[in-house]
Design goal:
476 residues, mainly beta, Methylamine Dehydrogenase, Chain H, 3 helices
Amino acid sequence: MDTSHAAEWLGTGQRLVNRLANRVGVAILLGGALACAGCTSDRPPGDDPIRPGVDAAATNNSVRSINSDAQIEKIPTQPVDPSLDWPRLHGPTANGQSAEQNLARSWPESGPAELWRIPVGKGYSSPVIAAGKLIIQERIGETEQLRAINASDATPLWESGYLTNASNKTSYSNGPYSTPTVSDGVIFAASAEGTLRAIDLETGNVHWQRDLAGDFRPPPLFFSYGASPLVDTSRVYLNVGGDKTGAGVVCLDRQTGETVWTSTRYSPSYSSPVMGDFGGQKLLLVMLTEGLVCLEPDTGAERWFYRFGVELSAERANAVTPISYSPYVIIVAGPGPGIVCLEVPTTGQPVEKWKDRRLIDSQYTNLVLAHGKILGATSRRSALIRALDVKTGKKTWEWETDLCRANSLAAGPLVLFLGEHGHLGLIDVSSTEPMVLALTKSSVLATPCYSAPALAHGRLYIRNEQELACFDLRGQ
């Protein structure tokens, strides 16, 4: 990245006026996980400059510290309560729920108070927040990078970039689709070309990287790789889709990047892995092209498989991350297959608790569980937002709104929506009808808005392919 562009990001808390002007006209909204292994590159498969155990400093990854240590120490930081961080796609538990308890219940038609706004590059990756830092993954020209800023005032900290030749089979974004995961001071981020990097949160230095596309040979699909990593204390789990190499799901050692196990011959999808606790057993759940697979996380052994989803095409794919809440898991796909709630046994096959083909058939927007209801959108462009009773699957209510196909997050009974055309909405779901508390009259971001929102320490973070904005949602 040249110094003139980097200079646009210097400053603390002021709204920057030189914004990226490029706009995406039409794109498939690959929400939830946005995970696919289909982008092409001029680089030969497997020709990755860093292998596990090899010094990252000897590669062409570039790291630039924007502030000196003395400057960084002067940056005002918010009190850091890890439970209020947003360290991965859809938050701490990957189900869109936040532990926030004192959010404002209303704001003006113009929207909540804006704290800052900065330009960003291409891609559908969502922002993540940990230890007072916000991490954004983006593409600017021929460089894909991770960028760290102070989450309170957008003061830039560091950039870790690498050249990319990523190009899709369609006219949609060539930027990164995957959302990074931050765990114990390390960022795990997958590039558009399918390279997973472990990067130091404080410095931006690369610890290790793996060429997932080259090593496991998933079939080419339609868009950039986008599976968001699932990370625990010792391992990294990935939806890779290496159907010919027995690497539909891959587990790596989080310290070294070495392969721990590979499992299944299912094809890749746009959905991220989740971990569920069922009867005291931790089980790994991954939605692939063919359906939902349940694996033992220690060994990759397959417990069961449930066939479900849409037929893969340039317009359709399994794209939404499952919602796990013991003893159930909820999956959705659209248009068509709809929504299913499965009861997960400690042994044997899952049992369909309820299902419906039409009430919710989200194509890419996430599901969120709030106050005994599962909320989601229909797949048509003039989408409805519906709430179903999580126990029975029966419709509680529906809401016709300008939000259309919206991504969402929840804090107690409050559910916040980022609409695909840049509107914000806030409702209370504690009754039998949606209580609309706030809805912006006009867009706060230019359409289209495909990335999931993030909420941390009372601040809402949203982006499109031009800007990243921060709004104050803290109550009085």
